[in-house]
Amino acid sequence: MRRLWALIILTLFIGAAAPQATGYDVTERVSVEISPNSELLSVVYYLAFGRSDPFVIDRGGYLDEVDSYFAPYRNHRAVQMLREHLEKAVSISEKDMRLFYTEYYLLLCTEPPELRPWGNIDDPWTLDFIEALRDFARESDFMTFYRTHQDYYWEDLGIYVNALSLLPPDGFMGRYTDVSNVRFEFQHPFLVAIHGHSFNPFRDGVQVYGAGGMVPLVRRDPQRTVWSYRTARDTMFGLPLNKDYVNNTGLDELIYLGFVYHELGHDITLPGLYANYGDTYSLAYLEDTIEEDMPYLARYDIHFWDRTGMIYEGFADGWLDFALSGVDPDYAALAVWLQRAWGEFWIDEVLQLYGEYTAMSVQNSVPIGEYVDEMLTDLREMVPQEEARKFYEERVPVTPLRAFDRSAVDGRVVVVYGTQNPDPLGVERDMETAEAIAENLRVFYAQWNGTIEVQIKADANVTNDDLGSNLVLVGGPYSNALVNELDDNFPLRFVPAGNGHWILEKNHDWEVYSYILTENADDPVVTGELGDVTGAAVIMAVRNPYAPGNYIVWVAGEDRNLTALFQNPTYYLSSYEIWSEKGIEMGFYVQPLASS
User: Fold this and answer.
1) pLDDT tens-digit profile of 182-198?
2) Which residues contact 489 (CB under 8 A, 6 or more apart)?
3) Three-state DSSP class for 580?
4) 521: left (phi over 0), alpha (psi -120 to 50) or beta
5) Helix (H) / strand (E) containing 496
6) Rg of the Cα trace of the chain?
7) Biggest alpha carbon distance in the chain?
8) Alpha helices in 88-241 (DSSP H)
């Protein structure tokens, strides 16, 4: 397959003059906006697919106004074209990719209604679609709608502007590469969750570095805030999100800033990675190692659709970690763990190499991008092929992500609810939670090309064969007999605290690295743990002691309503997450197989 990012990163777009971005200027050379081109695409997408579509963000009154204003254009040719184009996708991941490519091309045009391409757009369908969009924008007077709704857009723009002000890209990037002829432009949609991507054309003799789309949603970032819960979408499966969040705009800003520096990491490294493609391909065993353990991840995540895509992601993630370590070290450390959980077991070496080569870049006045080939050589020596599997097992934490990938390979997962609670309403609610989890798992496995049996069983009906399967245990020890039998060996367990309360306490025999997401905007992430808390809910993954190649995922809460918090357990990259009114704790631990 043609490399996903090649078109976006390396092609030089030379054409007619185009205006600079019209959004908010963070500095003289850094701007951010809700792009009228992206929002035009979003409105047409919304008219094509409606409110219930998984890519559409519930923007409250804004949606009502879109409905009212654009009602006469629901059957416009642009709407029909986009619907037909995206319905050809064989999976939601492919639909995601088609949508962000379309937005990327639109960012190479002047503003509506003219939409004159100033960059190289050679795709026939896209050119026809732009013509249809031009008609739509003129007939609907889209720009009047756009200009009169700026107050809505500030909900996101305020976060973006504050985030970029924490570490302005022109200043930071200028330390390590020549930015004298560079503008930084970040152009985003508002209504539709379009996959975040690099945007770096060459325009009017000026190199643009920046991004389009939105923050990569749900599965690669800790989307655990009020704002991110409202705006996040699962654009890989369309599954609902759990309501585990804190209210912290400071964390929103860090999430966005991480996205920005990930994309800027592509800008400075991909030219060197492509120029040294042979050396890049010689590291394909890094991605192969992930795919050996998580083949389903490699199927639904577009970055695995060739053998070296994750090498490119690793270099971008390493730049994110390096940049944000000077802004919020605890957040940067959490980001590293999340990257390891996605399989990037070499991320520590990439981060170390950035530290070494940025120092050389400053000392020698050489752009960091010119050291990429040397970094590739060093990485191959630091993580040799013969050691890759060992490094993977020693570094990649046990997570629900790995557990549910193993269930795909194994072809079976058993969801077990408890029947020991003397309150029949408690048993009934836990059974309903188990049924919701099972249904979400069936949707999750829809892109796997094999058969996966998702069973629901009461704890009293679990057989010895079941015990060795991949299990999801629903409920605490008071309600679920299997949890009561196993939880002495868990890193967490519920113990009675009197008056109907239960404390979630730690087993300190486990080596755990944990971080708390707080409601303090000045210090949104801190290293440490919540301590023994009441009023908590937990999702946790461990290796199955009856069959260590398989896993147990445990979902429980102090009461049946808190147990129901994690009805979609498929997108967690921490070994456990504890939700409580005191904050969210994300913990990580490694459980290598004995044979590793």
Assistant:
1) 999 999 999 999 999 99
2) 507, 542, 545
3) strand
4) alpha
5) strand 492-498
6) 24
7) 74
8) 92-106, 124-140, 142-147, 150-166, 169-173, 226-231
pLDDT in tens, 443-481: 999 999 999 999 999 999 999 999 999 999 999 999 999
Tokens of 320: 């994110």
Output the 3-class SS for 305-349. CCCCHHHHHHHHHHHHHHHHCCCCHHHHHHHHHHHHHCCCCCHHH
Task: Tell me how far CA of residue 302 lies from CA of 238, 297, 309, 386, 484, in angstroms.
Answer: 15, 9, 8, 27, 40
Segment (H or E) for 576: strand 576-580
The domains located in the chain, with CATH, are: 6-275 (no CATH), 400-588 (3.30.379)
DSSP state of 241: P
Residues across the chain:
596
* Residue type (1 letter), 137: A
Whether this model's pTM surpasses 0.90: yes
pLDDT in tens, 538-589: 999 999 999 999 999 999 999 999 999 999 999 999 999 999 999 999 999 9
Split at pLDDT 50, 70, 90, the class of 17 is very low
Kindly report the backbone phi and psi dihedral angles of residue 523, in degrees, each rounded to the nearest multiple of 5, phi listed first: -150, 70
Torsion from C-alpha of 480, 485, 486, 492, nearest 10 degrees: 60
Q: pLDDT digits over 298-323, tens only?
A: 999 988 988 899 999 999 999 999 99
